[in-house]
Amino acid sequence: MRVTVFGIGYVGLVQAAVLAEVGHDVVCVDVDQQKVDNLKNGIIPIYEPGLESLVKENYETSRLHFTTNAEEGVAHGKLQFIAVGTPPDEDGSADLKYVLAVAETIATHMNDDKIIVNKSTVPVGTGDKVKAKVTEVLAARNADHTFHVCSNPEFLKEGAAVNDCMKPDRIVIGTDSDEVKDVMHELYAPFNRNHDRIIFMDMRSAELTKYAANCMLATKISFINEMAMLAERLGADIEHVRQGIGSDPRIGYDFIYPGCGYGGSCFPKDVQALKRTAEEIDFEPLILRAVENRNAEQKQVLFNKISAHYKGDLAGKTFAIWGLSFKPNTDDMRDAPSRVLMEALWQAGAKVQAYDPEAMEEAQRIYGVRDDIQLCGTRQSALKGADALVICTEWKQFWAPDFDIMTELLNEPVIFDGRNLFEPSLLKKKGFYYVGIGR
Predict the structure, then answer these.
(1) Is the pLDDT of residue 193 over 90?
(2) CA distances, 60 to each of 9, 29, 33, 42 (Å)
(3) Both ends of the chain: CA-CA distance in Å?
(4) Mean pLDDT estimate for the chain
């Protein structure tokens, strides 16, 4: 099938590459000429396991194309995917200007019938706005072309997006059109062979499903973090509690790992956007507010523990930080807990020696050259001469370090573990002062 994808950011690029991999003919359109040129030369704008080879192979076999020519993109595909960003507006609501701009572009250039697929994460009712925009532009052109708008939200996890796209848990499609159902069935047939993963529903329900899914996961994280804070004060170990409740199949083990807060491009933005949507219709989103507030508090926990240990005197101290990305297997630092921690340490007069397997360039881009941060090439070099180690991201390579070498490199054997990677009793035996979350 001939498919056009507007927006080659995280969602658009992964979806386009995976559709091309199964044989569809995909054209990607973006306004950023540099990004398009880089992709043609095999330079991928994000780190995502498996994505680079997928993009290169499908570009070389001419199943995947990149262009800034919107007219060319609109002419190419019956299916027009909108996969542009919906950044938070000043009031927390999702900014739809890019989505509606693409809708206008499609309507301006379309010369035959189209199916417009909203892949971007958008508030409930956006499909209606896209439909209205296309109708308006076609009327101004006196163009009589049939089109449909449907919602097809993504459910990708950063760090596992290619696998999630190749082997989806579910494919949600919001439409009331039998024609759209048939076309989307054909599009996703290669991913639907084992059993039927497609769930059809109305467009507004599909739009809400995306937000509800992310907000539910964020709720689980904030809940276990709140239990962790209770555990500390009650003399319990949250890791034991986690295992106890996770064994209940109604709860499960996923997303109940205590830590120093969630970040990334989805959970903070989507909780905020759905909260704002609720407020706009005079509904009080009590749970969403609590989730957001708990997460904001949780991002302060590591700094508070560090400050308490040093009795508020952090000036002149140096802290090694392992992990800058908001989660493993990505270089994404958007809303990362590491940023909150580092900025608080700097404000208190401390310095940072940081290491992350993938996010070093992103940290350099965000913070530039500063006297109070040194980006280190290895996890060991980050430890050298530091007063303590702080763990912000649970990269696998941090799970089994050589504690003897760590003792030699650190000024003092002190670890603040924001991801509970280590067993407190083991660290105590090795002579470390160890602080976890809820332990």
Answers:
(1) no
(2) 20, 17, 19, 10
(3) 54
(4) 96
Q: Is 28 a catalytic residue?
A: no
Sequence-separated contacts (24+) of 138-145 with Cβ below 8 Å: 138/107, 138/110, 141/107, 141/108, 143/110, 143/111, 145/110, 145/111, 145/112, 145/113, 145/114
CA–CA dist 217, 248 (Å, integer): 17
What pLDDT score does 147 carry? Answer: 97
User: What pLDDT, on the 0 to 100 scale, is given for residue 251?
Assistant: 97
**Residue 326 has which token pair?**
């908001």
Q: What is the pLDDT of residues 380-394, one digit of tens each?
A: 999 999 999 999 999
Strand-pair category, 147-151 with 388-391: unpaired
Cα dihedral 26/31/37/41 (nearest 10) = -40
The percentage of residues in the chain with a pLDDT greater than 70, rounded to a whole number, is 100
Q: Which amino acid is at 321?
A: I
pLDDT of residue 302: 98
- 195 falls in which pLDDT band (50, 70, 90)? confident
* Residue 216 structure tokens: 């539910």
**Chain centroid offset of residue 252 CA:** 22
Tell me which residue has tokens 């995909």.
26
Whose tokens are 């000036």? That residue is 315
What pLDDT, on a 0 to 100 scale, did the predictor assign at position 326?
A: 97
The residue from 165, 266, 376, 392 that is catalytic is 266
- Kindly indicate the confidence band of residue 228, based on its pLDDT and cuts at 50, 70 and 90: very high
CA-closest candidate to residue 59, choices 77, 36, 82: 36
Give strand ranges (E) for 23-106: 25-29, 64-67, 79-82
The bridge status of strand 414-417 relative to strand 433-435 is: parallel
Phi, psi for 189 (deg, rounded to 5): -55, -40
**At CB < 8 A and 24+ separation, what contacts does 18-24 make?**
18/54, 18/162, 18/165, 18/166, 19/187, 20/58, 20/63, 20/64, 21/54, 21/57, 21/58, 21/63, 21/166, 22/190, 22/191, 23/63, 23/190, 24/63, 24/187
Main-chain phi, psi angles of 5, to 5 degrees = -120, 115
Angle at 180 between CA 176 and CA 183, to 5 degrees: 155
- Report CA 436 to chain centroid distance, whole Å: 25
